[in-house]
Amino acid sequence: MQHEYPGQKRILVAVDSIIFGFDGSNIKLLLVERSLKPESGKWSLMGGFVEPSEAPEDAAVRVLEERTGLKNIYIEQFRVFGKPDRDPVERTISIAYFALIDIQQYEQQLSDEYNPEWFLLNEMPEMVFDHAEMVRMALRQLRYKAALHPILFQLLPDRFTIPQLQALYEGVYQTKFDDRNFSRKLLSTGLLVKLAEKDKLSSKKGAFYYQLDQSNYEQKFGSFLNLVPNPDKFF
Fold first, then answer.
1. Rounded to two decimals, what is the model's pTM?
2. What is the spatial order of strands in the sheet that 160-161 belongs to?
3. What pLDDT is stored for residue 206 in this prediction?
4. pLDDT in tens, 152-203
5. Would 165 be classed as within a structural domain?
6. Do residue 138 and residue 171 come from a single domain?
7. Of 2, 63, 132, 205, which sees the most CB atoms within 10 A?
8. pLDDT digits over 221-232, tens only?
9. 78 and 95 fall within a common domain
10. Is residue 24 a part of any domain in this protein?
């Protein structure tokens, strides 16, 4: 016999994924065209409903693959959005997830079905419902994590230059860092190993390549805390 809670109204549960990507120079946001009415054809995050037999995280993985073709991405749950009027059709609570990926690594997976497109953070189009607020909150969470932990290193190739890493941080924080200060703080962490080769393509003088020192990674990543100046202003 199936029991029900008396006097309770139905509420739908959805999942939405905010996927940030780094293309080597810029941080971008992945959006798709919404397929449902209302506002079909407008830009949307990768969203869908949780099935009765699914855990929310499984639904988020399924919906992301259905909408974009992307799979095997680590997505992190970060917030619930539940204002009563957030969806004009039915009362819907959305569990939001976010990720930051290397665009070039996943470019081949993208399917064309929902017209997925990467947008620069300062050129984002109008989005459906409260999706712009979700993006703002996800970016705050990403900035918070990046100020505490060198998570952004995962987006770089095995060997990279300091200007490359600076471009990545400037993209996430949408600000310009002082070149000399950034370089000095970065090298003082003890997390980098300088290589003999230089990148000669980006400048006449060239920039030395570095690698992450995996042997000291766990002990030294706390020294990363001072890399971002005045991090509180970004949250």
1. 0.87
2. 160-161, 207-212, 192-199
3. 83
4. 877 888 889 999 899 999 989 989 999 999 999 888 888 889 999 988 776 6
5. yes
6. no
7. 63
8. 666 666 777 766
9. yes
10. yes
pLDDT beneath 70: ranges in the chain: 1, 202-204, 217-218, 220-226, 231-232, 234-235
Distance from C-alpha of 185 to C-alpha of 177, rounded to nearest angstrom:
11
Dig out the tokens for 221 from the structure: 């990543």
Same domain assignment for residues 91 and 185: no
CB burial of 206-224 (b: ≥16 within 10 Å; e: otherwise) equals: ebebbebeeeeeeeebeeb
What is the identity of the amino acid at 62?
R
Per-residue pLDDT at 197: 92
Q: CB-based contacts of 176: which residues, under 8 Å, 6+ apart?
A: 170
For residue 1, is it within any domain?
Answer: no
Closest CA to 67 of 23, 102, 115: 115
Task: Examine residue 59 and state whether it is found in any structural domain, yes or no.
Answer: yes
The residue range of the domain holding 17 is 12-147
Q: At what angle do helices 162-173 and 131-148 cross, to 10 degrees?
A: 140
* H or E element, residue 219: helix 217-220
Classified as helix, coil or strand, 57 is helix
Q: Which of 97, 126, 147 is the last residue of a domain?
A: 147
